[in-house]
Amino acid sequence: MASIALSRVGKSFGTHSVLSEVDLDIKDGEFVVLVGPSGCGKSTLLRMIAGLEDITSGTLTIDGQRVNDLKPKDRDIAMVFQSYALYPHMNVADNMSYSLRLRRRSKEVIAAAVSAASGKLGLDPYLERRPKALSGGQRQRVAMGRAIVRKPKAFLFDEPLSNLDARLREQMRAEIKRLHAELGATSVYVTHDQIEAMTLASRIVAMNAGSVQQIGAPLDLYDRPANLFVAGFIGSPGMNFLEGRCEQGPENSTVVLSRGYRLPLSVRIPAADGETVTLGIRPEHVTVAPDGQIDAAVELVEPTGLGIILHLIVHGESFKLFTTDRALLQPQATLRINLPKERLHVFDQSGNRLAVM
Amino acid sequence: MSHPEAVRSGAARKPAMRRFADAAEPWFYAAPVLTLIVAVMLVPLLLGLSYAFRDIQLLNPFSGAFIGLEHFKTLARDDAFYRALKNTLWWTGASVFLQFALGLVLALLLDKPFPGRGLAQALVFLPWAVPTFLAGLNWAWLFNPVIGPLPHWMAALGILSAPDNILADPHLAMWGPIIANVWWGIPFFAITLLAALQAIPRDIYEAAAIDGAGPLQRFLSITLPFLAPTIAITILLRTVWIANFADLIIVMTNGGPADRTQIVASYIFTQAFRRLDFGYASAIALVLLVLLLAYSMLIVVIRQRLIEKD
Amino acid sequence: MTGRILMTIAHRAAILAYIVFALFPLFWLLKVSVTPNDLLYSEGVRLWPSHTTFEHYRFVIENSAFPTFFKNSLIVACSTSVAVTVLSSLAGYALSRFRFRGKYAIVALMLITQMFPLVMLVAPIFKMLSPLGLTNSLTGLVIVYTAFNVPFATFLMQSFFDGIPKDLEEAAMIDGASRFIAFRQIILPLTLPGIAATLGFVFTAAWSELLFALMLISGNTSATFPVGLLTFVSKFSVDFGQMMAAGVMALIPACLFFLLIQRYLVQGLTAGAVKG
Ligand SMILES: Nc1ncnc2c1ncn2[C@@H]1O[C@H](COP(=O)(O)OP(=O)(O)O)[C@@H](O)[C@H]1O
Ligand SMILES: [Mg+2]
């Protein structure tokens, strides 16, 4: 097991810069998830850790040793690819044992390692099959098995579940979590799916357009997003945003929305009087009340089973509300809603979080 | 182990050794092929170009002097060369056109699934495997009234007035090698075009069919545009190749009768091997090379224009 | 409905016409080679002689150097195809997987070699090989044929490599393989169809080559089949039965090889075409 540290790591392809100044410390045994929209550079970062891409600038260390120039084979890490990258001409057992055979381990060691891994993953009946004869979920397991047989310093996952259907994805997600609890191996996991990130991570690294936006525990990112990007990216359905003007009072600040609604906050925020701010609130925190402060027109009602997503129009802007109150399934044209002040997030004009609420 | 210097300077530059090894890696894979091509094709090519300006006769030990443009002056007055040039146009144009047209039809026929397609494909592509000299001999025999059926059949159909060998008839002789060449070359076009056809996503056809396009419209609006790049590049390469391709003519007619089937490539061969005048042969080859390069440039430029217009 | 049936009939008839056109010359070769001499002229245009003989084959095998030619050609074609396949898979891999300065120069160089009249190289190559003692030797022929076939084979192999996901060798490298080991143990086994296509293509080409064989080889001991057949033809130009028997024998290995690999050829070119 190992710790991984990135210090001011950058990457460019030719003149096109895709990652800049990434700082990240991954502790031994941690499960770190890199999350962000596709094209933001997650895979590139992961591949740099693996040694598959050159590091343009900065330093990468594994267990304190600088590994920038080490070949992938000398870094002792394992990786699970999105495509699984199983060797089509080898059967499951050979796929799993390839790394050990390359290291010239003895037959007994290999056999023991393969059978331990296949037992853990329920692959025993398929050891003789070629990848072509396996289902998607089984292939995924083989890819995992190939990673765990060698007991590497760290595991890297690049969107390992995105080729599975929804049910299998959930099942494998739980299984990965269970395996991590059991093996305690340092893991770096890339996904664009924020639910996967929330459920798996001990720490999440939220990325956008080649730079790190926030690093923290899943609930930290959910409760205290550092900026508009993280606020909008984490959580489903995504956070609602409304523009307003800040009015400073003696004890607290008030946000005045465009139609004149005044929303007093519980603290003073560090903003100039009259400054434009963005107010954010999660759909699940919006409440419906007959004497609610704000008028909303109902546009669409989506029952999800667990609850209901209401698509509203507030001040001409779309706004979402999530509730478990089935009464709201009844068709109605308008609603009155409240935005509880302890649930509000406030961001300044450049998108950074202003207050700790 | 850490690398304190590197860490302290904060530089991400790789050690020189590693940088060199990384840069050299592709060359390690490509080097054997490059060495071979340079040694056995490029160097001889340059030597050959130099021969065009020298007096090189294989059997004359005193030859080898530089003579400047002497060969080209001779060439400019060489009527046989101009006739060969005209024959080359005819030979290349007719062969490429027929190979392409028949090859395209064959590819379209084979693109449709039918029982026994694998076998049919193997059989119709078979001529390509026939050694060219043997294809030449084979067709020469077929045109020979003593042993082959073709003259008799053509006479019976009224194409020929009498069952004679067309290879001996100055007006018809060129058709002999052309037919042999078409027979031998159809598979090349068919294989290439078939590969391109099979790469067209099927759902495009389905979408077009749902939109109400008939078979002809589908061919014109989907198949042809998809094939166009392959067609352009294949015709370009084949034209150059066939213009250079003398085997069939040498085997079937040796340029005769009365030089009526002499193309530039076979003329070079005649100069080099029958008269052993390598200097003159190289001069002709140089002219041919320049003409073919000019032709290729022209095609590439036209293609570029067409692409830019879109 | 009848329209569709008519279309099907027309389709099959067209295919049949192509097959007949493709096979008829070969059939005729075979027919004359088994026709006894006394029937050759009397039954000139009959499709099959009233009785057949293998006399011509026996004569060719016993009274000529054909077994030697056959052996020489086999040696040359096998060595050439193996050499070309090994070299072109290395180079094709480089073109497929690496981006490096000079790559386009290499591609351009290989394209140019496909452009110029090879006849032009005969004299210089002869002059270069003869001090090395490589004229009149099979080794010389193999070297020359290898060089001539390597550019096209490299492009062919490249298109096969392009069809294999990069993930696979990356996975292998992470598993602990060097790039070369990954190439040998993971990528090459997956390129077997491509290797088969290249082998077959080059074998056929080397088996058929006439010009350089004529020029670089003199005398019977190192003559290849095309050269031998051509000298035979000019010497015995009236004995059609024997010539065609020799022709059929020249045909067999090339055709066998071709039939084995032809489906991979289409497959390989498709992989290339998909890529664009
Ligand atoms: N080999 C490459 N050459 C040039 N650009 C690349 C290359 N690989 C990735 N990129 C670019 O880098 C950016 C990040 O890609 P990637 O790391 O794959 O994103 P993600 O995994 O987050 O979806 C993208 O804009 C992509 O186009
Ligand atoms: Mg990615």
Net shape of chain C: globular
| Quaternary structure | heterotrimer
Strand-pairing-aware structural class of chain C: mainly alpha
Task: State the shape of chain A.
Answer: elongated
So, the CATH homologous superfamily of the largest domain in chain C? MetI-like
Name the largest protein-protein interface in this structure: B-C, 90 and 91 residues
Keywords:
heterotrimer; A: 357 residues; alpha+beta; Rossmann fold; OB fold (Dihydrolipoamide Acetyltransferase, E2P); 2 domains; six-stranded mixed β-sheet; five-stranded antiparallel β-sheet; 20 strands; elongated; B: 310 residues; mainly alpha; MetI-like fold; 13 helices; 0% strand; globular; binds adenosine-5'-diphosphate; binds magnesium ion; transmembrane helix (chain B); MetI-like_sf (chain B)
Describe the overall structure.
The complex is a heterotrimer of chains A (357), B (310) and C (276). Chain A has helices at residues 42-50, 92-102, 107-121, 136-148, 166-183, 194-200, 218-223, 228-233, and strands at residues 4-13, 16-26, 31-35, 57-62, 65-66, 77-80, 154-158, 186-191, 203-208, 211-216, 240-248, 253-257, 262-264, 276-281, 287-288, 294-303, 308-314, 317-323, 334-338, 345-347. Helix content of chain A is 24%, strand content 33%. Chain A is built from 8 helices and 20 strands. Chain A starts with a strand and ends in a 10-residue tail after the last strand. Chain B is mainly alpha-helical and 310 residues long. Chain B has 2 domains: 4-51, no CATH class; 72-309, MetI-like (MetI-like fold, Orthogonal Bundle), CATH 1.10.3720. Chain B has 13 helices and no strands. Chain B has helices at 4-9, 16-51, 70-76, 79-111, 117-125, 132-143, 150-156, 175-198, 202-210, 215-243, 247-252, 264-274, 278-309. The longest helix of chain B is centred in the N-terminal third of the chain and has 36 residues, at 16-51. Chain B starts with a helix and ends with a helix. Chain C is mainly α. Chain C folds into 2 domains: 1-53, no CATH class; 64-275, Orthogonal Bundle (MetI-like fold), CATH 1.10.3720. Chain C contains 13 helices and no strands. In chain C, α7 (138-162) packs parallel to α13. The radius of gyration of chain C is 23 Å and the shape is globular. Chain C starts with a helix and ends with a helix. Residues 272-276 of chain C have low confidence and may be disordered. Chains in contact: A-B, A-C, B-C. The A-B interface holds A 8, 54-59, 61, 64-66, 68-69 and B 1-3, 6-7, 10, 12, 14-15, 18, 22. Adenosine-5'-diphosphate binds next to α1 of chain A. Residues 13, 18, 36, 38-44 of chain A line the site of adenosine-5'-diphosphate.
